[in-house]
Design brief:
The chain is an alpha/beta fold and 297 residues long. It folds into two domains: 10-107 and 217-295, Vaccinia Virus protein VP39 (Rossmann fold); 112-215, DNA polymerase, domain 1 (Orthogonal Bundle), CATH 1.10.150.170. The chain has helices at 10-17, 34-41, 55-65, 82-88, 105-109, 136-142, 145-156, 161-174, 180-190, 193-196, 204-215, 217-231, 245-260, 276-281, and strands spanning 24-27, 47-52, 72-76, 96-100, 237-242, 264-266, 289-295. It has a seven-stranded mixed beta sheet, sandwiched between helices. The termini are far apart. Bound molecules: S-adenosylmethionine. S-adenosylmethionine is lined by residues 5, 7, 29, 31-35, 51-54, 57, 78-80, 100, 102, 104, 107, 127, 220. S-adenosylmethionine binds next to helix 2 and strand 2.
């Protein structure tokens, strides 16, 4: 268990949620439960519903939190199903919703999950291995070359999508590409020399793009944002922390759309970013951007 996991922008998220000790909150991305625990600490009769698509994350968070608090309920679901979660459990009032998007350090560090190019593992990348069937291995070995190019460019801002897609298609004719390190090496072999040993591994963007495609993350996010604002109470707050430009753009645009349709106000003119101290302590927070919406009818 990764007890050293650090929740990104925790103080800032709590400040914007402006917790009512008797309110009900939803943490749509429970992960290891860092944000959920911080919310629960401020509750009296209120509760937090912690959602995660990943059964492993849920059971670890549950094991960790149950000894500390009885204010948390754990739900295995994709946050695209937020409305169903709220309706099925008759959660009539929701004072605030938090989403801290992407992958947790626990998922990243487990080679079996296939999220990381640092350790050898099967190319998987599904958040929910029970209900999702498409894996990164399927994408790499079956998608058309042009589709790979588009995914790498759009979801990863990859500079060399064509070369990478080409070498993948050449390689898979000889032998299926099965593992994270196999793919990472292949990518490294075709990027120009000066990009091979930079601060960021040359496979970073392609891995991000594959993860987004496997989990349909951008469509899921769009659905979630609209439904979240719908299920919130009057004056309820939606706090979203994103980690790359594609996600942040969606959050920014949907918040603008909702504000101009009269559903509420954007509380963050500019996104909130981590302090230098937070980045020094937790480099993963480097690219985080937090935006907040407050609902009005
Ligand atoms: C960055 S981690 C959250 C960390 C958490 N805030 C903490 O403090 O420990 C993101 C979590 O969201 C989950 N997740 C990602 N997309 C999801 C989705 N569409 N529905 C439900 N959970 C999702 C991942 O499985 C992961 O556990």
């Amino acid at each position: 268990m990764d007890w050293n996991h650090v929740s990104v922008l925790k103080d800032e998220a709590l400040e914007y949620l402006a917790i009512n000790p008797n309110g009900r909150y939803i943490d749509a991305t429970l992960g290891l439960g860092g944000h959920t625990a911080a919310i629960a600490e401020q509750l009296e009769s209120g509760e937090v519903i912690g959602i995660d698509a990943d059964r492993d994350a849920l059971s670890q968070a549950q094991a960790r939190l149950e000894s500390q608090t009885d204010r948390v309920r754990f739900v295995h679901a994709n946050f695209a199903q937020l409305r169903e979660v709220v309706e099925e459990r008759n959660l009539e009032s929701v004072a605030g919703i938090l989403a801290d998007l992407g992958v947790s350090s626990m998922e990243l560090d487990n080679p079996e999950r296939g999220f990381s190019f640092q350790q050898e593992g099967e190319l998987d990348m599904r958040f929910d291995r029970e209900t999702q069937t498409l894996t990164a291995r399927d994408i790499v070995n079956t998608y058309r070359e042009q589709d790979l190019v588009d995914i790498f460019r759009e979801y990863g801002d990859e500079k060399f999508p064509g070369r990478i897609a080409r070498i993948i298609c050449e390689q898979r004719k000889k032998q299926e590409i099965q593992t994270t390190t196999q793919l990472a090496e292949l990518i490294r072999s075709v990027v120009p020399g000066r990009f091979k040993d930079g601060r960021i591994h040359p496979a970073t963007r392609v891995f991000q793009a594959l993860r987004i495609e496997v989990n349909d993350e951008l469509n899921v996010l769009r659905q979630f944002l609209r439904d979240a604002v719908e299920v919130l109470d009057e004056d309820g707050r939606l706090v979203v922390i994103s980690f790359h430009s594609g996600e942040d753009r969606i959050v920014k645009n949907i918040f603008r759309e909702l504000a101009s349709a009269g559903h509420g106000d954007i509380l963050t003119k500019k996104p909130i970013i981590p302090t230098e101290q937070e980045i020094a302590e937790n480099p993963r927070s480097r690219s985080a951007k937090m935006r907040v919406f407050c609902k009005h009818q």
